[in-house]
Amino acid sequence: MKVANSVTDFAALRAELDGTGERIVYVPTMGALHAGHRSLIALAKSLGSRVVISIFVNPLQFGPGEDYARYPRPLEEDLEICRLEGVDLVLVPTVAELYPAGRQVTVHAGPMGQLWEGRARPGHFDGVLTVVLKLLHVVRPHIAIFGQKDAQQLACIQRMVLDLNLDVTVLGGSTLREPDGLAMSSRNVFLSAAERVTATALSRSLAQAATQTSVPAARAVASAVLDQVRDDPGFELDYATLVHPTTFVEVSDDYHGDAVFIVAARVGMTRLIDNAPMTFPAPLPVAEPVPV
Ligand code: PAF
């Protein structure tokens, strides 16, 4: 495994692969790798001949007062995981290289980037898209894989790839869960034992919603689960609703088709998000009575 600590070093290693016919699959990360990332790397290995990972805690996607400073950065452990998972190339760029002094240009995520996570974290998706576009230019992969756990991020990235005619296939890797249902996240380390228990309300609400066949029923059962923790002083629900899978616009009660149930809450000091894809089939047409 080769590790490039700068974009310049990475570019030299990447150039060696030009013209070799290798299929490059890329997993961008902010490090603090867990089993969820390992499953994305395993997916990448199954799809390509060279796996590239980047580790970069992107300051541009954190708002003032968010957890940029305390975001976990266990680089040596991360590199060990990459070695064990058979990653070929690791890019660990510096902030100064990705954000040169005097920088002016950023990517604007558009209306979808202002909804839900974008409303709670103004500028977040602009920061994500800006760094992802830069990293895609540097890595030049054939396929890039992002976790479905960050469903709105994935949808924004897919929109950017379409809108900016980027020559890359973007895929989503399934969310991995702890045995208690909590979606794996680098931020789970911030949760106390009691907060961990409260946090399971998010995945339980999704599991309940998934058993329903109509939008109002899914909303109602999810809400009933979340009501169980609503009075907990350490719990503050931000949203729990059903949205269209590509636009993230909230769907109406009579909606039929594919949707995503998205939920976000603050548990203690930690903001958690989770989601589950759902399908609400159109009702079967009522059969005309056959004359006898
Ligand atoms: O999902 C993440 O880890 C980050 O948002 C990403 C895509 C690596 C961009 O910084």
Major sheet details: 6 strands, parallel
CATH class of the largest domain: Alpha Beta
Gyration radius, in Å = 21 Å
Q: What's the CATH topology label of the largest domain?
A: Rossmann fold
If helices are DSSP runs of H or I spanning 4 or more residues, what is the number of helices? 9
Strand content: 15-25%
Q: Which cofactors or ions or other ligands sit in this model?
A: pantoate
Annotated CATH architecture of the largest domain? 3-Layer(aba) Sandwich
What class would the helix/strand composition place it in? Answer: alpha/beta
Q: Summarize the helix and strand pattern as letters.
A: EHEHEHEHHHEHEHHEEE
CATH superfamily of the largest domain: HUPs
For the secondary structure, the number of strands is 9
How many domain units? 2
Return the average pLDDT rounded to an integer: 97
Across the major sheet, the strand order is 1-4-3-2-5-6
Unreliable spans are: none
Net shape: globular
Distance between the termini: 76 Å
Helix content: 25-40%
Task: Briefly say what this structure is.
With 292 residues, the chain is an alpha/beta fold. It contains nine helices and nine strands.
Question: What do you see in this structure?
Answer:
The strands form two sheets. Strands 1-4-3-2-5-6 form a six-stranded parallel beta sheet, with helices on both faces. The chain has two domains: 172 residues, Rossmann fold, CATH 3.40.50.620; 89 residues, Pantoate--beta-alanine Ligase, Chain: A,domain 2 (2-Layer Sandwich). Helix content is 34%, strand content 20%. The chain is of the alpha/beta class and 292 residues long. It binds pantoate (PAF). Pantoate binds next to strand 2 and helix 6.
